[in-house]
Design brief:
The protein has 213 residues and is of the alpha/beta class. The chain contains 5 helices and 12 strands. It has one domain: Rossmann fold (3-Layer(aba) Sandwich). Helix 1 crosses helix 5. The radius of gyration is 18 Å and the shape is globular. The protein binds cytidine-5'-monophosphate. Cytidine-5'-monophosphate binds next to helix 3 and strand 9.
Length: 213
């Protein structure tokens, strides 16, 4: 089976030395990749500038990207051949409307930065899927499960993993794995490898089920 994982933060450059980004470590993406390799499947691992990367292996191809647009381009290149796509990436929702070729000077009291929406990569996958199983994450600070279920529906995903903001950068986490039939698997205070194992098992189950339908 061919997996495609999106991982890590994206960077949206304002000028040559400054960017907008977030705290995503890449830990969850790495845990997912290791769970896939352990099961002897192949994985294309598209990652932003993350502190943590999976160990090199013959079953993994690591593609490094910077911005959400780069990640989207890399995803589109590999979309058709993937069977299961999981996005654990913290994609920046917005990017600066213009990029200043030169370093912005501090000669004003107020600097206004205009931001425009980035493409929603996993929503593109949900919209264009054929045989693919598509899974995303939802990090919510309120109404965790309800908001995650809403996202699952809106983005036409097969699976969504709901977690709270404590998950960012942590090695232990509580998560709810929610599928489109309404099934919820809740995992309390587990390490990310254990959560990744459960996620990979669920995606494989859905893929096999779809095939026999
Ligand atoms: O909408 P929200 O950002 O909460 O959705 C989270 C899910 O969507 C994650 O799986 C994330 O990787 C993915 N996402 C994406 N492209 C975006 C924003 C989020 O693929 N621009």
């Amino acid at each position: 089976m061919k997996f495609l994982i999106l991982s890590g933060p994206t960077r949206e450059y304002i000028d040559p030395v400054r960017f907008i980004s977030n705290d995503s470590s890449g830990k969850m993406g790495k845990a997912l990749a290791q769970a896939i390799i352990k099961r002897k499947h192949n994985v294309i691992f598209i990652t932003g500038q993350a502190a943590i990367l999976p160990n090199p292996s013959r079953s993994i191809k690591i593609v490094k990207v910077i911005s959400a647009d780069d990640m989207f381009a890399a995803l589109k290149k590999n979309f058709k051949t993937a069977d299961i796509i999981i996005s654990a990436a913290a994609v920046s929702d917005f990017k600066p409307q213009t990029f200043s070729k030169n370093k912005i000077k501090k000669d004003k009291q107020i600097l206004t930065l205009k931001l425009i929406k980035n493409p929603d990569i996993i929503a593109y996958c949900g919209k264009n899927k054929k045989k693919q199983v598509i899974a995303g994450f939802a990090l919510e600070t309120q109404n965790l499960i309800k908001n995650a279920q809403k996202k699952l529906k809106e983005k036409n995903l097969d699976l969504i993993i709901a977690n709270s903001k404590e998950a960012l950068g942590a090695s232990k986490n509580s998560a709810h794995i929610i599928n489109s039939d309404g099934k919820i698997i809740s995992i309390q205070n587990s390490n990310k490898n254990k959560i990744a194992d459960k996620i990979i098992n669920e995606t494989i189950k859905i893929f096999r089920n779809n095939k026999t339908r």
